[in-house]
Batch of 2 targets.
Target 1
Amino acid sequence: MTTQLKVRSELALTAEGVEALSALRNEPTWFLDLRQRGWRFYEEIPWPTGNEEEWRRTKLTGLDLADFRLPDSPVSGLRVASTAELPAHLQEELATVESAGQLVTQDGAVRYRWLDPALEAKGVIFTDLDTAIREYPELVQRYFMTDNVPVDANKFTALHAAFVTGGTVLYVPRNVQIELPLHGVTTMRGGLADFSHTLLIADAGAEVTYVDDLVSADQEASFHSGVVEIVAHPAAVVRYLHYQDWNVNTWHFSTQQAQMKRDAQLTWILSSWGSRLSKINLEMQLQERGGHGELLGLYFPSGRQHIDHHTLQNHIADHCTSDLLFKGALRGRSRSVYSGSIKVHPHAQKTDAYQKNDNLVLDKRARADSIPGLEIEADDVRCTHGATVSKIEPEYLFYLMARGLSRYQAEQLIVTGFFEEVLNRVPVEGVRRKLEHVIARKIIGG
Amino acid sequence: MPSELVIKDLRVKVADSDLEVLKGVNLTVRQGEIHALMGPNGSGKSTLAYAIMGHPHYEVTEGDILLDGESILELEPNERARKGLFLAFQYPVAVPGVSMSNFLRTAVSNIRGYTDKPAVGDKPGVIGSNLMPMKEFRAELLQKMDEFHVDRSFARRYLNEGFSGGEKKRVEILQMAMLQPKIAIMDETDSGLDIDALRIVADGVNKLAGPNLGILLITHYQRILNYVKPHFVHVFYNGRVVMSGGPELAATLEEKGYQWVKQQFDEPALVTA
């Protein structure tokens, strides 16, 4: 289908590309300025060399940005009025979750959007970034890559700022509680570079669940450099479920950060299934007293996939708790890296922080590295961390097979059982089911 | 014709080592028969149980295991189970995160042939659409749980996780009841049980015993034989069946102790060691 795309040569990942993109989208000057700032930082920040601790185990060999181009957007012609007009795989994806709003983005442009009118009436904003820039500039100016994920956080966030396309802006006003989840699906075709952004703001006392799915439209290589910014204002309750299932030829870079204000609660679930290589940075900032954050991760690389998660539980204020559990299984010749840190600032007394990473290595040639860490500057805190890397117990396999289960069924039960601890804590039933399906698929190496 | 498990001149060593554990075992168990296999610790009883079920840790070097005339040596443990063999474990393992009912439904569906049909309307590789119907399975499971004194809450609990010794053994019997094997090998099912638990487990075995089930009851102690009456008793020592007889052999053994066996069958080299 690529022949139908009119490739504009100016839409390359270059300084000219930045201007062309902004012009094509009729963006205000302030946003072009932000893009250009992103481009300047991108040029200034050197490529990771492998000398930095964070990049010691993850190499970018084989990545050439010249292989990818920006989508020929805006693709307004692709927008549809009902989900029935969407491709089957997107319909299926949407059907997994019973939701109060849906936003489908393909190749950096909205294909479908729906929000329960009752929520519109309450002032909930659930839209794409382009629309938000036009209609809610003050919201974007206040929150978009300012003090949460700064433009110059790293080379990929700078590149993201320069070329951000599509993405979701979700704002829930004060004390508005949304019962059903909102559901975003981002998809892209091979050869493209995707810079989608998720901006989730829950105002004081608000409650929201957002399911953020990333899926490929085909099997060709593509490139994603994403940013997720979450702000949970005082006493807000936020559940954010990030599900990455690109094809195994795609490069995935994602920087995600959540700011938690007083007594805010956040359940943050990150799952990584697809991509050729993933480098994901997560930071939970407990900025004010009484915050409670739960950070759960699932990953399952197979074949030659490489998945790298780095987490930071950043305890800035006192009396906050954070609870992290990352579990990964590995198949084939895949590789995973988990590195995590709990940082407790001098004033963050009565911090209660937990960090655990478990890995189940299914094949001899797969390898999991786990590097947990603590950095504690307060004296009245409770912090525990731990990491395990193990294989399937042969005695489990024998027991289950002796009862008539095939090796595959036994492995499936054991691996699903391994993930159960996290699956049990997934607050959206449809997502839990989807996770069970993807685990079953990954066991056969898919 | 009743099913028949024949163990013929079986020699087994520990895989990747030279340690020979079974040194020419001969034994036949038919449907409808209860055999007690008694022997001291370290005589190779559990190895025999594992070898029959196909544990990869043990390697058959000579001899054969036949079920209804066909060798099962090349079969995976699940294929042996499918042919009607069952092993009740001495130490049932706890598998984290695997619920008993989920596991058992899959097992029963395989054994009864439900999963021979391809899955329909489901994503590939996902257990579900071709299993025994949930309602039917559940009804049967609950009925059997009541019958074998297993609390109904165990269905949702993780397999053997946090179960007491007695609970684990009762759940083994429950699984056996659900899977309806032709020949069951019960490896020291009585070990580590207090008298009440032992009685419940023995009652379970007696309920299941009958013309359709052959039982090989492996035990160190005579006491379970106060509750389960075997047709045949074998004495196992140093990797072989050294004596066979009727129930009276168990009584003799109880009276004279394993020392009596050792004196008769010890290899001289071992005595001096």
Target 2
Amino acid sequence: MRPQPADASQRRRVLLLAAGAFFLMAMVWQHVQATRLGYRVEKVRQQILAMRCANGALRMQLESQLSPANLSLQARTHLGMSLASPESLRSLDGPASAARTGLLQRLISRARRALSGTSPA
Amino acid sequence: MDLHARLAAVAGLCLLPLLPLGVRLTHLQVLQGSELRSRVAGEVLRTTTESFPRAEIRDRRGRLMAQSVPFWSCFAERSRLRDRPAVARELGRALGMPEDEVLRRLQDPARFPVVKEDLKPEELSALSAARLDDKRLMEYGVGVQLRYRRFYPNGDLARGVLGLVGTDQDGLAGLELTFASRLKGQPRRLAYVRDGSGRSIYLDAQSPAELPRPLRITIDRDIQFHAEEVLRQTDRQFRAQGGMIVVLDPETSEILAMAADPADPLRNVMIQDTYEPGSTFKTVTAAAALNEGLVKESETFFCENGSYAIAPGVVISDHEPAGTLTLQGILEKSSNIGAAKVGERVGAMRFYRYSRAFGFDIKTGVALPGETAGEMKPLTGLTRVVLAASSYGYGIGVSALQMANAYNALAGGGVLHEPAIACDAPEDAAGEAPCRRPTAVRRVVSEATARTLSRMLEGVVESGTGLTARIPGYRIAGKTGTARKLDRRTGKYSTTSYLASFVGFLPLSRPRWTILVVIDEPQGQYYGAQVAAPVFAALGRRLLAMAGVPPDQPAAVAASRP
């Protein structure tokens, strides 16, 4: 059975009204969401700023600890270190005898000499 | 009446109240729309500028030298403050402060008295909860503001170079002033609406942000630290008025350290002040004589056994009487008479030309504010007596940077470069490589002359007045200087106030550093050889060990070992 023309136009009207209402609802929903998001963005902005403040303060502490004056003080007073002098430099590609002062190094050197059959200079 | 008609009538009756509403809406939206929109925009739409923290300053290896740290500050607006006791009560509760203290601060005569700085997150929340945040600013005249504080993590290290900023984060001196606009960046404009409860909703950025990028400078934090430390120790040891150390890279003329004691962030004495260099200037006279072929290395000058009457009533004397000396001998013994005679040979015109060629009486062009050009007599003023005095560094004023840069030209093979303080390369390229392409100003002397002169200056350290600058195992070229200070009260040279200096470069086989040391008014000992040269050696030893530079004279280091 085919639908009557009057029924079809009525259904179209209802559909149009429903679509219009839906569109209006969507607009309202979108506006509410945008406002809510705006508040959230502002809140997050404030949080970021607060974190940046905290981060800045922490970084300030860290950098102060790493300053050469503080490191030097810590090294001298707590670790008993002293400044290196140029005389303490040893060239690794030069004669290795100066560096072979440990027990293990001396044993290795002696073993090598014994294997190669040379006597110490 | 059929069903349709009845339904239509009911619907019409239901919709009838909406008709005036529709008419009113049309009136508001269409007829008054534009006017109302502009009114609303004026009332709720606002714009604000969002500024960024001032850019960081980093050293040549990317280590932090200056940084802006944000903090929240609670303030009041005097003209809007109402009911101060009530405000003090609420603020005291929110900020954990005694009510009397808040009241005292609110009564500060400033336009915007600060109630508390460095607010903690919980204090900010407490302020919001107390409804004393922005919403009530209009009502109570109290608000919070994000501010920035410039922080120098290394304390006073290189403060004369870095300078300082004011409370509004504008550069006042030093690099902070020279690079003020680059460090500050461009704030962006933001549009926002404010609702009935005072809360903000940000809409869009109206202008793009220009985030300031960190500024990398040529200073090496470690070298700067060592320079400042040895300088402080020396000033204490000799109870000196002050002192300066400049360290340059001979290849590029990059400033590696600029130390002054006492440190003053508002004043960089190494470029803003001049001093009479004394004997360190003899090298310029010798360079002119050698480069022009006016003096041969083997040629000798009679040094009048320590006293030379150059004009009636004008006597030049040497600290150590000498007979006949070669040019090398003149430099090694630091003979004023010998230098004056060499200066006579050079002549006023050439002396003036070479002095300017070495960068004296001209600004070096370093990117630091308030640089002096120095003081030098004009060519017409270089009479016989003035020329003689200038030949050994009296009657002229030079800045510490000018003097260091002149010796740097010799260390670099005779080419004068523009001293650099800011790097070209981006911040993330920090490393060992030169951070700036060297800018050659001019060739001052030939490479051969620079080599010869360097050898003569090596003689000064090996067997002359600069013995105390020696570092076993390393070849060093340098020159001592001891200048009497001009007594401004009497207008005559003082017999008690001296300026001791030493300038040189090391290691000579491949110069890595040019170091200038100036000690102002040392007490007890005052010769450059006694006061400044040991500082050069102390700093040189630290730099050599730090950089791991092997000896370029290994026999000497072996001989010096017990």
